[in-house]
Amino acid sequence: MRLKKYDIRLTPNFSLSEFIVSETADKKKFKEQFYVDFIITENLQNLCVNLPQPLRNVCGKVIILSGYRCQRLNNAVKGSDHSQHLIGCAADFRVPDLKRAVDYISAIEFDQMIIYQNFIHVSYTPKRLRKQIIYK
Q1: What is the spatial distance between Cα 118 and Cα 48, in angstroms, rounded to a whole number?
Q2: Which of 40, 79, 118, 125 has the fewest CB atoms within 10 Å, counting from its CB?
Q3: 3-state DSSP call for residue 15?
Q4: What are the tens digits of pLDDT across the range 87-110?
């Protein structure tokens, strides 16, 4: 689904469409994935301001793989029942230098960081900043 016409800029380098796009939702016609409410948009902006944007400023390119997921999409990709993706407080992304990104994120506030071989999952919510790091 093309979202550019009504796209919202969350930070200087990231837009809402990057955090809601999904091939799976497109294929399965999960239209609710592409219509997010104010709270989710606000959560995505808060996430973006505190993690991907500062990371991009320091480390360069950040490619968002997954951001917000509606319930049906989360179920389809076998996400956690309590995933912070469901409320727009988490994102998965790739960066050119994984180690540099992990080092940078470790030094700032975040709730959870899961480090995979090819990407990083991070979550941010001001009410819960555990700085939990998990290696997969």
Answers
A1: 20
A2: 118
A3: strand
A4: 999 999 999 999 999 999 999 999
Residue of 67, 81, 65 whose CA lies nearest to 123: 67
| pTM beyond 0.85, yes or no | yes
Residues 109, 113, 117: CA angle, nearest 5 degrees: 145
Identity of the amino acid at 100: R
2 pLDDT higher than 90: no
Which residues fall within 8 angstroms of residue 71, CB to CB, at 6 or more apart? 86
Give the number of C-alpha atoms closer than 13 A to the C-alpha of residue 73, restricted to the C-beta side: 24
Instruction: Please answer whether residues 89 and 111 qualify as being in contact, where contact means their C-beta atoms are separated by less than 8 angstroms.
Output: yes
Q: What is the pLDDT of residues 9-33, one digit of tens each?
A: 999 999 999 999 999 999 999 999 9
Residue 52, both tokens: 């991907």
Q: What gap in Å lies between CA 91 and CA 12, rounded to an integer?
A: 17
